[in-house]
Design a protein that fits this description.
- The structure is a single chain.
- The protein is an alpha/beta fold.
- Helix content is about 25%, strand content about 20%.
- Strands 1, 2, 4, 5, 6, 7, 8, 9, 10, 11 and 12 form an eleven-stranded mixed beta sheet that branches. The chain has a four-stranded antiparallel beta sheet with strand order 13-14-15-18, covered by helices on one side.
- A hairpin with a 2-residue loop joins strand 13 and strand 14.
- Helix 3 crosses helix 8 and helix 7 packs parallel to helix 8.
- The radius of gyration is 21 Å and the shape is globular.
């Protein structure tokens, strides 16, 4: 049923409109931190159950090749929320407690896109786009915010959850919990972190129940499964697969609670739910890290283990149930797709994402509208990706050492490796094991030309390109977050 038919139907059926409250779709985005590609049932996990995500997949569509713009915290979130490569908005890496930069006021977030159409908007969880008030969600399109301003390991506690008295992290401030733009808990402790997943979930459910009669956007960027891992008493030991399994099972419970709230309030059939992650697993943490399902490397690299994430989308009656999409897509495409669905205007400035709704609903003949995706890490263009091909450009990268991985929250070492030009066929070699550039010089030449276009727009670590915009900066008269 197309949008015009739906509009006519609703106009003729006021009782239906009264029951549902509105005809605009609700949007829920659940964003997991550091989740491995094969950490949940729909993507091959056998170590512990994830029944709610299994059900979400059965009722929705699994995306087997969903990418992030950069496989690191702040950069990945910037791309999701602005529809831009993180280099374009100059948010790279992971902003720390000492950072005086963040998302620029001139950027348009997913929250601001939704506000155009009168949506109620909230963010509950890890923000990581700047922690001073001018950078926080309530000043970037979200009516409410509750969560940690950055990663849960950016605090003065060691791997065994003891206070640090010397070294670099001893200089970190206590970890704050923020509500709106003020600190409501100036010292989040290990015991407090055990309640994070539950607290974010309860906030999301309460918001859905209060706002069922108006269109809304709910953004839930969970702090877990970023180390240090914490889980509530209700899930401690439940998985039988160690703390990591317990934490994932609690996240699965969270998804179930949100889906049940949508059913209970009668708005299930009018809500798009997106489940995805910010990057792959931090593999040197061993049994406190996820699994890539054989994908190469992990977090902090633009190999598939870092950039490809488990993604599920569900909207009963609109997204075909029990289906799989193997077409490549990226988090930068979520903002323009949502804008298309709700009839909002895209930003006046350039963005990089495109509407991928035909792919999401599985329209016959639908293809990715991008010529290719540009895979930067930091300020370095490292790869070019099309639906079938991935060309790595010469670069050094983090290399994980599985036989030396840490245990129980302690990290093992990593080293640095180098890759030269290498072409991989993603149709047959998603694990990036066999370089086929010599067999396909025409493909290499085409992707190299695309790389030159990317560099001409966004530049590299030597010099930014003309398409790069400045991040937000903390000025002398701006309010500081203090705790």
């Amino acid at each position: 049923m197309n949008r015009s038919i739906v509009t006519i139907f609703l106009a003729l059926c006021p009782a239906f409109v009264a029951a549902s409250g509105h005809d605009q779709p609700n949007i829920v985005v659940i964003f997991i931190d550091d989740m491995g590609y094969s950490d949940i049932g729909p993507f091959g996990c056998k170590d512990f159950p994830t029944p709610n995500l299994d059900r979400m997949a059965a009722e929705g569509r699994v995306f087997t090749d969903f990418q992030v713009a950069q496989a690191v915290c702040s950069a990945s979130r910037a791309a999701l929320l602005t529809g831009c490569y993180s280099n374009r908005v100059s948010i790279l890496g992971a902003l720390g407690p000492g950072s005086k930069s963040g998302i620029n006021t001139d950027e348009v977030t997913l929250g601001e896109i939704a506000k155009q159409k009168g949506y109620a908007t909230v963010a509950f969880g890890k923000w990581h786009l700047g922690h001073h008030p001018k950078f926080l969600p309530v000043n970037h399109g979200f009516d409410e915010y509750y969560g940690l301003p950055y990663s849960n390991d950016m605090w003065p506690w060691d791997y065994d959850h003891n206070r640090i008295t010397s070294g670099r992290k001893a200089g970190y401030p206590n970890l704050p919990m923020i509500e709106g733009d003020r600190v409501v808990d100036a010292d989040v402790t290990p015991d407090d972190q055990k309640q994070l997943t539950k607290a974010y979930t309860e906030r999301a459910v309460g918001f859905i129940e209060r706002n069922k009669d108006q269109p809304f956007l709910v953004y839930v960027p969970h702090s877990m499964v970023h180390v240090p891992l914490f889980v509530s008493d209700a899930f401690a030991g439940k998985s039988g697969a160690g703390l990591y399994g317990d934490v994932v099972m609690e996240l699965d419970w969270s998804v179930g609670q949100i889906l049940e709230a949508l059913r209970r309030t009668g708005i299930d059939d009018n809500t798009l739910v997106i489940f995805t992650a910010d990057n792959g697993p931090w593999l040197n943490y061993g049994n406190h890290a996820g699994k890539t399902g054989g994908l190469r490397e992990g977090k902090g690299t633009m190999f598939e283990g870092g950039s490809r994430n488990p993604t599920i989308m569900r909207w009963p009656g609109r997204i075909p149930a029990g289906t799989t999409c193997d077409t490549v897509a990226m988090t930068i495409d979520i903002l323009p797709t949502v804008a298309h669905l709700i009839g909002a205007k895209l930003p006046d400035h350039p963005i990089d994402g495109l509407n991928i709704w035909p792919i999401i609903v599985g329209e016959e003949g639908a293809t990715n509208p991008h010529e290719a995706y540009w895979l930067y890490y930091g300020k370095e263009l490292q790869a070019i990706r099309t639906d079938r091909w991935k060309l790595h450009l010469p670069h050094e990268h983090r290399h994980y050492l599985p036989d030396r991985a840490g245990t129980n929250g302690h990290p093992g070492p990593t080293t640095t490796a180098r890759i030269d030009y290498a072409l991989y066929d993603m149709d047959s070699d998603r694990n990036e094991t066999t370089d086929v550039k010599d067999e396909h010089p025409d493909i290499v030449a085409r992707l190299q030309a695309i790389a030159e276009n990317a560099l001409a727009d966004l530049g590299d670590k030597r010099e930014p390109g003309p398409g790069v915009r400045q991040p937000g900066a903390l000025g002398p008269d701006d309010k500081r977050l203090e705790w």
